[in-house]
Amino acid sequence: MILCLYVAGTFLLNDKVSTNIFVPLPAAILAFVTAVVSVFAYIWAPKKWPYQLALATYFLMCITTGVLIELTGGQHSAYIPMWMMLAVFSGLFGFWGLGSIFTFTNLSIIYHTFLSSAPYTREQIIIFFLAGEMPLLVSYLIWHERNTQDQRKSKAYEAMAKELNQVANKSETVINSIAEGVVVTDEQGKIQLINPAAQTLLGWDKQDAMGLDYKSVIIIGDSKGNALPDNASPISQMMITNQSITTNDYSLTTHSGKKILISLLVSPVGDSAAGAIIVFRDITADKEEERAKAEFISTASHEMRTPVAAIEGYLGLALNPSTAVIDDKARMFLEKAHESTQHLGRLFQDLLTVSRSEDGRLAPKPTVVDIVTFTKEIVDSLMPKAQGKGLFLVFKPNSGGTEEGTKTVSPVFYSYIDQDQLREVLNNLVDNAIKYTKQGNVTIDITGDDANITVGVTDTGIGVPPEDVPHLFQKFYRVDNSDTREIGGTGLGLYISRRLIESNNGHIGVNSEFGKGSTFYITIPRISHDRANELIQDAQQAATAQPTTPVAPIPGGTPVASTQTTAPAPAPRSAAPSIPVAPPRQ
Ligand code: ADP
After folding, report:
1. Which of 443, 494, 514 is the best mutation target for the ligand 1 pocket, counting ligand atoms within 8 Å of the beta carbon and taking the most?
2. Rounded Cα gap, residues 63 and 54, in angstroms
């Protein structure tokens, strides 16, 4: 503005401009220097010192204006309002801005009052004082509060930035030292983080993998190493559902084409599907070890089951009065030996089933099963055992039935399930209920809705302590207390039951009160009457093509429970495998 006035006054209007707004040359030079410094500070100077550069520019503006005022009449100058405007901004620079202008103003007042050759009158001093000090007061009021707030904010920002930095450093150290591979993607699936373990496992360098689509770096296949269709990998599934997935059933192809089995955990970043966190580890060696162990157990159990069954058979013959004559003492010893052999046989049988279920050899072969009739057969087969212990075995298929007149109509529950496996599970639950109940009842009830059927086995037995409940379905887990110690068992029955029920898309659970009793239940998928008919007809057609056992269709209208679809009930799990043995030759 000063430069413009100078140019206008000196070159364009040829000194015709009012002396009040005339700009002398020294002020114009200073204004020019100030303008150059401002432009330099704004455009070229390093941005490291914004405060210092702004303050320097501001001082230059003040000096230019001060000189301009002095040269254009001092207190009579038309540029005094310009000074007042400038002074209002001094507070913007905090202590240095305000302090400097305050000092300068007061020195100037002192000079004009006491030292000048033409000192100001009292009125002049008051006006000069007000014109100099008022803007500073206003400036203080305006900027002080703002500056304090800004300082507080910037301190808080600094502290937060420092903290974030520390957290980021710590996280990076932790992520880099994790032995598992960790890959993080954004919502488009582009890799944003890959830790050293992931780089080693995948055979990708960080700089190559960063920013790539995860599908080209993490190539997931099924457990046999075959490629998966698009969207079938657990990572894609997680991206669609936004639910964490943990699995050991997939393989990974490395950059060099090697296939490894992996344990994989995929979780969403935050709640709003902002990306995926993929954690994985090589379990090829673990799986191989597991397989070798399972094979050893399977072979050993298989080989040992046969001689144990033979011993059991011979002991049975020795205890049979029609085949052997023995005295009472010998009978007592042989009975104990017979019991232990039975236990051993059961253990081998369970071990075999466990190893078969773990290596996938127990794939379900589903057929249509009328659950009520099927369960009744199992209950009937275990009735003598319950009665032998003085227990009431109650079968309640009517739960949820509807009253029609005086007759209760039980719903018919069909399921498409492997009946041998279901039999093994139900046998085990009812057998356990009888085994772990000293007196009272064992009740088997069946309930269901359109989607599921629940078979519950409730007893008035010893119950399970709450701390043992979460472990009941683990391998070899037995509750260890004075009640259970005398009752024989392997701790494998519930584990086998869980695996079998889960492989048939069902669920097994327990509610128990220690000392009062337990309810073990299974929930399996239900199929409609029409669907059951369809499946039976399909099975019939297959049977006609390959003549085997005929399958009875469900008569139209009211379905009638068909027992022909079920095989004869086998001996419960507790019955040891027995083979026919010829009497020993003397
Ligand atoms: P096992 O009966 O051969 O020991 P299971 O796997 O069938 O093995 O059962 C595991 C454990 O669960 C048993 O040892 C027992 O402590 C407990 N248990 C199972 N069924 C019942 C039941 N009905 N009442 C109380 N405890 C039970």
Report:
1. 494
2. 14
